[in-house]
Amino acid sequence: MKTNITTITDIKALKPVIKALKLEGKTIGFVPTMGYLHEGHISLIKRAREENDFVAVSIFVNPTQFGPNEDFEKYPRNFERDSAMCEEAGADLIFHPSPQEIYPQSYMTYVEVNEITEKLCGASRPGHFKGVTTIVNKLFNLVEPDRAYFGQKDAQQVAVIEKMVKDLNMNLQIIPCPIIREGDGLAMSSRNTYLSQSERAAALILSKSLFKAEEEIKSGSRSKAQLMDMIVSNIKSEPLAEIDYIEIVDAKTFRAIDTLEGDILIALAVRFGKTRLIDNLRLEV
Ligand code: AMP
Questions:
Q1: In the prediction, which pLDDT does 202 show?
Q2: What total of structural domains would you count in the chain?
Q3: Do residues 54 and 21 make contact, with C-beta atoms less than 8 angstroms apart?
Q4: How far is the CA of 151 from the centre of ligand 1 (A)?
């Protein structure tokens, strides 16, 4: 469904648009992104389109969620292409602010979720989730969505945001959406564009290992240690892969588990050259 999309860069211009929608009783579906869109993002926009009167997408590479040695500067950006893709997917509005608009010089307020943010990506990327919860909070205040759509690709991010919304009694629904993969299994990511041809081929080891783990669990394997060994040795068999973390945790709390039962999440972060990729598999055992 193609729409006549509006782009707004100023908070001042956004407010009356949201106010008018609220007065008309329209529901707002919201998809926060950092741009350089792919089919993963588009799946969220399409879902939002199905479930809401109005669909807003934000495109903002959020500086506060990047560490000092991370890829903020070189993160891929292509607003023209993103805008056309949003329009094609049926979005009504793109909010595309500058970093100064969001974080003026006098800025000093942050939102932080504890415990669940201390492991996995939180441990490897100190301060990352504080940046995520702060920007998502600000965007929720600005866009006032009824529903916000997040990809399960960033499983810990979804859990952290769900916790923030619950703990702070925020008045919206978080809708987690499935991971969209390339035909060969690689989870779609804006960062895949960094990969060289050989790194791209090597990165397939992530989804292959997760799918193999799924098969083993489905055929009755219940030993966490054995499953971990299998995944680690599989990934280590790929010379270009450098493991950041591989963890099997409770999918809701992100606490370590001893046995493979209940709602579990196998989550991994692996570097290929300078590119850090994440992937995961959630299973009810
Ligand atoms: P990003 O632009 O990477 O910050 O992602 C914006 C949103 O798109 C987040 O909710 C991501 O989890 C989601 N997303 C990114 N990649 C995928 C994917 N392959 N499948 C589903 N959702 C995704």
A1: 98
A2: 2
A3: yes
A4: 5
Range of the structural domain that residue 259 is part of: 190-280
Question: What is the C-alpha to C-alpha distance for residues 148 and 56, in angstroms, rounded to an integer?
Answer: 10
Residues 149 and 235 in one domain: no
Indicate which CATH number applies to the domain containing 118: 3.40.50.620
Tokens of 220: 């009755």
pLDDT of 1: 65
Based on the fold, state whether residues 231 and 133 are members of the same structural domain. no
| Domain end point (choices 177, 200, 227) | 177
Q: Which of 31, 75, 154, 161 to mutate to test the pocket of ligand 1 (most atoms within 8 A of CB)?
A: 154
Mean pLDDT by 10 residues, the chain (285 residues): 87 98 98 98 98 98 97 97 98 98 97 96 97 98 99 98 98 98 98 98 98 96 94 98 97 91 97 98 96
CA dihedral defined by 115, 117, 119, 121, rounded to 10 degrees?
A: 180
